[in-house]
Amino acid sequence: MLTNRINPECDGSGCMIMAYKKRKEEIRMAEIECRDLVKKYGSKTSVDGVNLTLENQRVIGLAGPNGSGKTTLIKLIQRLLTPTSGEITIHGMRPGRDTKKVISYLPDREFLPEWMKVGKLIHFYESFFEDFDREKAERLMNDLKIDREISLKKMSKGTREKVHLVLCMSRKAEIYLLDEPLAGVDPAARDYIIHTILENYNEEGLVLISTHLITDIEAILDEVIFLKEGKVLFHKNADDLRAETGTSIDEYFRRVFAC
Amino acid sequence: MLSKLVGYEMKAFGRILLPIYGAIVVTALLLGINMHFISFSENAGAIALSIVLAILVAAVFIVTILLSVIRFYNNLLGREGYLMFSLPVGTGDLIWAKVISSVIWCILSWIVAVLSVLPFLAAPEVADAVKEYGIGKIWAEVTGSLSPYRWNLILGIVLIIALAVFFIVRLYAAISIGHLWTEHRILGAVLAYIGIGVLEAFLAMPVGTYISLYWSGTGAVGITNALQGEGILLLIAAAGTAVYGVVTWLILDRKLNLE
Q: B175 CA to chain A: closest CA distance, Å?
C-alpha cells in the first residue's frame, strides 16, 4: 500500500527495493568535487591536476608523504588558498561563506587566539557556527578536565591540540576536514584523538583525514586517497585496496612511498 | 555576523588598550590631586607625573595604530586567519569589523587624550580663576565664540574620523598587496605602502592644480572657504577609502593564500 502511494505504477516488493536504493542513492551524494585542480607556488606545483569526487557517509584517508600536497588540497577546499586553475565545488557550490557553514576544519597548526579562555572559545564557536553543540563541547572539556577560565597560552601544546579537536568535533557538520590530527602527538593522545573523532563525527557527513600515519587510522577508513607530488595516485575503497594488494594499507603505503 | 565580529575585535583591542587607559586615568588623578595642593612651578612630583601622562597619551596613540595593523596582519593573514577565514562570514564583513573596531578605539583614544588635560584645571591658580569667573559663564563664552564655526567644527570632526578610516584602510591595502608576494610578505607590505605614497603624490599634483584652477575660475583664489575645503577633503578621503577598500577586498577574497 505504501509502495503504491509512492508510485502508483508499482505493484510489489521489487519496487520497494528500488525506492530504497533510490533513497540511498539520494543520501549518498557528492560532497566535494575537484576538477583539474592545480596549485602552483611560483615554479613549484603543489597540487597537479587533481580530479576527485568525495561522497558523504564516508571516512576518507588522504595519505601521502610530507610535501605531497595533502595540506594544500585541504586548504584549497576550505578556500584558504586560491587555486591556480581548476574548480572545486562543495554541494555544487564554490567554496565560500555558505560552504563554510557546513565544513568543520581542523588545521595542521595552532590557529586559535592564545589569549582567549576556553569558555570564551566555546562561546565564540557557538556564536558563529549554527551546528555547534555546546553540550557536547562542555562534556568533552569536562572529560579532559579542562578549566574554562584558563587561556590557551597557559596550556601545554598537547592540551591545546585537544581543545582544537574538541571544538572542531563539537559541530554537527556535513564535512570534517582534519589536517594531520595525529602528527606530533604521543600514542596515548593519538588514541584519544581517534576515539573523539569516531565518537563525535556526524555519520551522515564526510570525514577527510590527511595523514602519513596510516597505521593509526587504517581501521576506521572507508576509502583512501594516495597523493604523490601533488597528483592522485589512486582513490579506492579501503577494503578493495586491501583485497587487491593482499596487504594492509599501511604496508602498501610504505611500499609505494619507499625512499 | 558583523556585530559579532566587531564585538570580538573590540575585546581583542580592549585587553591591550584598557589597561593603558586605566594607567592614564590613575596618573591624571594623581596629578590632579598633587596639583590641587602644591603649585605646579614648585612641584617636582607634578612635573614628573605630567611627563608620565604625556608619555602614556603618546603611547595610547601609537599602540592604537600599531594594534590596527597587527590585528589585521595576525588575525587575518597570520595563523589566526585559519580560524577567521573558516567562519561563515563574507570577506567584506571581516574587513569592516577591523575598520569599525579600529576607528572606535581611535575615537576612544582621542577622548582619553583630551580628558587627560583635566588635571591641569585642578591647579590652584586655574581652579581659583574658574571659581571666580564662574563655570557657566566660561562655558557660555566658549560656546558663543565657537557658534559661528559650529558647522566647521562638526564637519571637522567628521573629516578627522573619515581621515582615520582612510589611513587605516590604506594600511590594510598595503598589507594586502604585500600578501600577493609568495615570500617576504612584510617587506612586500612596506614597499607597497611606500609605492602607494608615491602614487598618491603623483596623483595629487594634477588634482591639486585642477582644484585651484576651479576655484580661480569661480572667482575664489585657492580654498578660501573652510567648509568647502573640508568638504573637498572629505570627498577625497571617501574616494580613497573606497579605492583601498576594494583593493583589500579583492585581494583577500580572490587571491587569498594563507601560508
A: 17
